[in-house]
Each structure stands twice: as structure tokens, then as C-alpha cells.
Amino acid sequence: MPQVVVPRWWRMVLSAVRDVARDALLAGGAPRDLIMGREVRDLDIFVPAATSLPDVGRALTHLGYTYAHSAPGSATEDIIDQRVYTHSTEKPVNVISALAAPEYRLRRHFDFGLCQAAFDGRRVITTRAFRIDASQEQFTLLQCHSLSLLTQSLVRYKKLRVKYPTFPLVLPADLPVDLQ
């Protein structure tokens, strides 16, 4: 995998959030797209559930971000709150509060292998599933624990096809969901 240079601004944003939530992790789409050479739309920063989101908002305000809105819905049942912050010249930041610890969440809750990428403030983290999907140019569905989560993953895949039009969806032969 090529050497990835994380933009300085991302480092500053994550550092500000980590001043409030030590275990915060910039994960998912932004690191994936940076590694894969695609345009980044926004930054998703995952924080532990016990994190004070108003404190995170104040930390982001010092960087010129303003609170835009709470984001409806969630990809998984463990997401407690999601707040969106915008900036006049930088990418929006989504702060996502979840029950699972951010690094555990990266490895156990992200549905596609190609989405299991993160930046922890020091290094870019990718899982084995990410590296396989990146090398095979595919999206492997790793997990879905219910029919509703499978449906959400299929909707996400349809959106991801805009950036990755040639990447097929790979479903496991033993898909762990009762589709009856």
C-alpha cells in the first residue's frame, strides 16, 4: 500500500477532538478515500459514548467550525448521537458518539472491508479486510446482524458505487442473517 500523507488540517481537527475524547478516531470514508485516491467529502470522527459532545463542539469552534445539525438515522444500533459541524473552507466534520469504543468499532461494526480504515492522530490504520478489498478492488460485506442492517449496507453500497463504479459487491456465502 502506498505511503499516505494525512492532511495537516485533519490532524488539527482530530487533535482538537482528542483533547476532549482521548480515544477519538477519524475513520471510514475519509481515510478510505484518501488511501484510494478519491475525493473526500467529509470527516467522520468516532468518539466514545461518554464524551461530552458540547465540549467537542467547543473544541471545533476554536478551529472555525460551527454546529450545523444533528444527523438523523444511523448505520448501526450502537450510534447514540451524530452531530455535523461545517467550516467555510474545510470539509464538514461528523462527530459520531457510539457505544462501542472507536477502535473496536472500526474492526467490528464497519460493514465493508474497504471501509475499515482510520487515522488515530499518529498513524493510518487499515485492517486485513481493508487491504484485501483494496487489492481486489471490491466491497466485501463482512457483517450484518439483521435484515434491516443488510438493507442499510446495500443502500450504502449503491452510494459508494458513485466513487467506485467498477468495485463489485462481494457477499459472504454464509451471510449471517435469516432472509426468510
Question: Can you describe this structure?
Answer:
- The chain is of the alpha+beta class.
- It has a domain of 120 residues: Beta Polymerase, domain 2 (2-Layer Sandwich).
- Helix content is 34%, strand content 21%.
- The chain has 6 helices and 9 strands; from the N terminus they run H-E-H-E-H-E-E-E-H-E-E-H-E-H-E.
- A 7-stranded mixed beta sheet has the order 3-4-5-2-1-6-7. Strands 8-9 form a two-stranded parallel sheet.
- Strand 8, helix 6 and strand 9 form a beta-alpha-beta unit.
- The chain is globular and about 45 Å long.
Query: Distance N terminus to C terminus?
Result: 40 Å
What is the architecture of the domain at 8-127 at the second tier of CATH? 2-Layer Sandwich
| Rg from Cα | 16 Å
What's the level 1 CATH class of the domain at 8-127? Alpha Beta
Per DSSP, what share of the residues sits in E-state strands of 2 or more residues? 15-25%
Label the structural class: alpha+beta
Largest sheet: 7 strands, mixed
The shape, in one word, is: globular
Average residue pLDDT: 89
Would you give the CATH topology of the domain at 8-127? Answer: Beta Polymerase, domain 2
Helical proportion? 25-40%
Element order: H for helix, E for strand: HEHEHEEEHEEHEHE
Strand order of the largest sheet: 3-4-5-2-1-6-7
**Total strand count, please?**
9
Please work out how many helical segments DSSP would assign: 6
List the uncertain runs: none
CATH superfamily of the domain at 8-127: Beta Polymerase, domain 2
